[in-house]
């Protein structure tokens, strides 16, 4: 399996392309008792490793392993407890050569994970929650996903201005720490400190975000609450809506899509590639 850096290099070399470009598929494994979508299902080492291997078999390019929920109203976890949950899952997978991301805002947890062989840090506070996070990422030469976040929802917010303020700050932190520009992905932060309409606007403007900063975009909309509010769907019934948003994101050139349902997304991407490359969209018959 290619390293994450190698996969990103291949993607970036061919982007933009006149033909369909597959986003990388990041499979989600929550080693938590309280995540909004699957809390408790993969909390044990056995269950988490089984799910990880299932997602890899379904076509995940990398796995994002998290041990602290980030849903609204989540219960914070101390760093030692977070690592206690992560260690028995990350280490075996790293030994297998799996491309791994750790979903954490804590520098001490990220440091342990990177030493163990993790290649990416997924920070939902964009390097701004822990002052040591950027230096930890830089020292390891790791990839980092910098996500936009807000403490408070503001219905009058100009999201474009807020994106720029937030990402400008995060990128200055990254630059001072010595994180390579090519190792950074931006995440618009779907579902984090935003209204439903702001979330929709964020999805619609990902290409603008990529163009402004010249950096690849990671989209994480899988099973989010906006689908419940817009369509009245419970968490287990949000796959069709998730597929629609992620397909739209793929057409907008996102680099990576973070998903719970890898097989459905792999099939969707493969069929879209077949339609695009083989001329079937031009009306050719079988």
Describe the structure concisely for a colleague.
The chain has 286 residues and is an alpha/beta fold.
Please, could you describe this protein's structure?
Keywords: Folate biosynthesis, Magnesium, Metal-binding, Transferase. It holds the Pfam family Pterin_bind. Residues 23-270 form the Pterin-binding domain. Pathway: Cofactor biosynthesis; tetrahydrofolate biosynthesis; 7,8-dihydrofolate from 2-amino-4-hydroxy-6-hydroxymethyl-7,8-dihydropteridine diphosphate and 4-aminobenzoate: step 1/2. Belongs to the DHPS family. The chain is 46% helix and 12% strand. The chain contains eleven helices and eight strands. Helix 2 crosses helix 3 and helix 4 (107-116) packs parallel to helix 5. Strand 3 (100-103), helix 4 (107-116) and strand 4 form a beta-alpha-beta unit. By secondary structure, it is α/β, with parallel strands linked by helices. The chain has helices at residues 4-13, 45-58, 79-95, 107-116, 133-140, 159-177, 196-204, 206-213, 225-231, 239-251, 262-277, and strands spanning 24-30, 62-66, 100-103, 120-123, 143-147, 184-187, 218-219, 256-259. The protein is globular, with a radius of gyration of 18 Å. It has one domain (21-71, 78-273): Dihydropteroate synthase-like (TIM Barrel, Alpha-Beta Barrel). An eight-stranded parallel β-sheet has the order 6-5-4-3-2-1-8-7.
């Amino acid at each position: 399996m290619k390293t994450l850096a190698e996969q990103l290099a291949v993607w970036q070399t061919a982007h933009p392309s006149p033909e369909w470009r597959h986003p990388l598929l990041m499979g989600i494994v929550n080693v938590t008792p309280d995540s909004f979508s699957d809390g408790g299902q993969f909390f044990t080492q056995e269950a988490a490793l089984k799910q990880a291997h299932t997602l890899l078999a379904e076509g995940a390019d990398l796995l994002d392993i998290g041990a602290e929920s980030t849903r609204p109203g989540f219960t914070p976890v101390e760093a030692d407890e977070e690592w206690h949950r992560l260690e028995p899952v990350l280490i075996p997978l790293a030994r297998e050569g799996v491309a791994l991301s750790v979903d954490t805002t804590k520098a001490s947890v990220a440091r342990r994970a990177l030493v163990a062989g993790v290649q990416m840090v997924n920070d939902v506070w964009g390097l701004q929650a822990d002052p040591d996070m950027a230096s930890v990422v830089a020292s390891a030469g790791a990839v980092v996903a910098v996500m936009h976040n807000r403490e408070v929802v503001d219905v009058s917010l100009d999201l474009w201005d807020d994106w720029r303020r937030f990402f400008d700050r995060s990128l200055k932190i990254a630059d001072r720490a010595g994180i390579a520009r090519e190792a950074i992905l931006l995440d618009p932060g779907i579902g984090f400190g935003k209204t439903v309409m702001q979330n929709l606007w964020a999805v619609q403007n990902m290409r603008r975000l990529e163009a402004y900063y010249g950096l690849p975009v990671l989209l994480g909309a899988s099973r989010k609450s906006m689908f419940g509010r817009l369509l009245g769907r419970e968490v287990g019934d949000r796959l069709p809506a998730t597929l629609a948003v992620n397909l739209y994101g793929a057409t907008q050139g996102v680099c990576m899509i973070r998903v719970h349902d890898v097989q459905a997304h792999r099939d969707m991407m493969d069929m879209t590639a077949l339609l695009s490359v083989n001329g079937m969209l031009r009306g050719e018959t079988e």
